[in-house]
Amino acid sequence: MNIAIVGSGTMGRIVRDMALQNPGIEKVCNIEPALGETLWDVDQPDIVIDFSHPDALDGICSYIAAKQGHVGIVFATTGFSEEDEEKIRKLAEKAPVIRSYNFSYGINSLKRIINFTAPLLKDCSDIEIVEKHHNQKADSPSGTALMLADVCDPYHERERKCGRKGEEKRKNEIGIHSVRGGTIFGEHTVIFALKDEVIEIKHTAFSKKIFAKGALEAALWLKEKKPGFYPIEDVFY
């Protein structure tokens, strides 16, 4: 199996190093769109893993679509707009696609826990989400935090409130709060605040390797799949 990694930043390098140690992967290459490199510059891969920047999306989609289902794509980049997300969903009509905000097994297990917990507490709790990341992360709130808000409230019955300022009282909302500092790999806490008691569900990442491992598992799983939009849960469970 051959893999092309879009992005040569920290995550791109970690994915490459782990891929080179995987006996199921024969060839690995990185391309960096910021340097003008494209997927057309390398031998055709079986799967592309994108750990780059939203600006690279159009070029990736153009390449994948031209391959008519012969090349799959794992999107691990964050910060996509809703318009970008729609492009990814449309691409799944022509190629096998996995798109996730977070590729760690722990976060995806956390989603399953919240799927069970949130309906039990829906009518008796306020929900807050606190996420912490390193000081180089550009987008906030994190895609994972927004994903967890959707798990807590899948029908968007509550407003998403990103941070607070001033004297406005709390409404029917989910508060989402971002911390950026140091080298924090990633920490997400979902808070269910009831009357006189609080339930907190928390996930902490101690290494970026967990995201690379999940992305590689997704790539191996996606090989030879038909065009379609596949949830990351299909890979893990």
TrEMBL record:
<feature type="domain" description="Dihydrodipicolinate reductase N-terminal">
    <location>
        <begin position="1"/>
        <end position="103"/>
    </location>
</feature>
<dbReference type="Pfam" id="PF05173">
    <property type="entry name" value="DapB_C"/>
</dbReference>
<dbReference type="InterPro" id="IPR023940">
    <property type="entry name" value="DHDPR_bac"/>
</dbReference>
<dbReference type="InterPro" id="IPR000846">
    <property type="entry name" value="DapB_N"/>
</dbReference>
<dbReference type="GO" id="GO:0009089">
    <property type="term" value="P:lysine biosynthetic process via diaminopimelate"/>
</dbReference>
<comment type="subunit">
    <text>Homotetramer.</text>
</comment>
<keyword id="KW-0560">Oxidoreductase</keyword>
<keyword id="KW-0220">Diaminopimelate biosynthesis</keyword>
<feature type="binding site">
    <location>
        <position position="37"/>
    </location>
    <ligand>
        <name>NAD(+)</name>
    </ligand>
</feature>
<dbReference type="InterPro" id="IPR022664">
    <property type="entry name" value="DapB_N_CS"/>
</dbReference>
<feature type="binding site">
    <location>
        <begin position="143"/>
        <end position="144"/>
    </location>
    <ligand>
        <name>(S)-2,3,4,5-tetrahydrodipicolinate</name>
    </ligand>
</feature>
<dbReference type="GO" id="GO:0008839">
    <property type="term" value="F:4-hydroxy-tetrahydrodipicolinate reductase"/>
</dbReference>
<dbReference type="GO" id="GO:0050661">
    <property type="term" value="F:NADP binding"/>
</dbReference>
<dbReference type="GO" id="GO:0019877">
    <property type="term" value="P:diaminopimelate biosynthetic process"/>
</dbReference>
<feature type="active site" description="Proton donor">
    <location>
        <position position="137"/>
    </location>
</feature>
<comment type="similarity">
    <text>Belongs to the DapB family.</text>
</comment>
<dbReference type="Pfam" id="PF01113">
    <property type="entry name" value="DapB_N"/>
</dbReference>
<dbReference type="GO" id="GO:0051287">
    <property type="term" value="F:NAD binding"/>
</dbReference>
<feature type="binding site">
    <location>
        <begin position="100"/>
        <end position="103"/>
    </location>
    <ligand>
        <name>NAD(+)</name>
    </ligand>
</feature>
<keyword id="KW-0521">NADP</keyword>
<dbReference type="InterPro" id="IPR022663">
    <property type="entry name" value="DapB_C"/>
</dbReference>
<comment type="pathway">
    <text>Amino-acid biosynthesis; L-lysine biosynthesis via DAP pathway; (S)-tetrahydrodipicolinate from L-aspartate: step 4/4.</text>
</comment>
<dbReference type="InterPro" id="IPR036291">
    <property type="entry name" value="NAD(P)-bd_dom_sf"/>
</dbReference>
<feature type="domain" description="Dihydrodipicolinate reductase C-terminal">
    <location>
        <begin position="106"/>
        <end position="235"/>
    </location>
</feature>
<dbReference type="GO" id="GO:0005829">
    <property type="term" value="C:cytosol"/>
</dbReference>
<keyword id="KW-0028">Amino-acid biosynthesis</keyword>
<keyword id="KW-0963">Cytoplasm</keyword>
<protein>
    <recommendedName>
        <fullName>4-hydroxy-tetrahydrodipicolinate reductase</fullName>
        <ecNumber>1.17.1.8</ecNumber>
    </recommendedName>
</protein>
<dbReference type="GO" id="GO:0016726">
    <property type="term" value="F:oxidoreductase activity, acting on CH or CH2 groups, NAD or NADP as acceptor"/>
</dbReference>
<feature type="binding site">
    <location>
        <begin position="76"/>
        <end position="78"/>
    </location>
    <ligand>
        <name>NAD(+)</name>
    </ligand>
</feature>
<feature type="binding site">
    <location>
        <position position="134"/>
    </location>
    <ligand>
        <name>(S)-2,3,4,5-tetrahydrodipicolinate</name>
    </ligand>
</feature>
<comment type="function">
    <text>Catalyzes the conversion of 4-hydroxy-tetrahydrodipicolinate (HTPA) to tetrahydrodipicolinate.</text>
</comment>
<feature type="active site" description="Proton donor/acceptor">
    <location>
        <position position="133"/>
    </location>
</feature>
<keyword id="KW-0520">NAD</keyword>
<keyword id="KW-0457">Lysine biosynthesis</keyword>
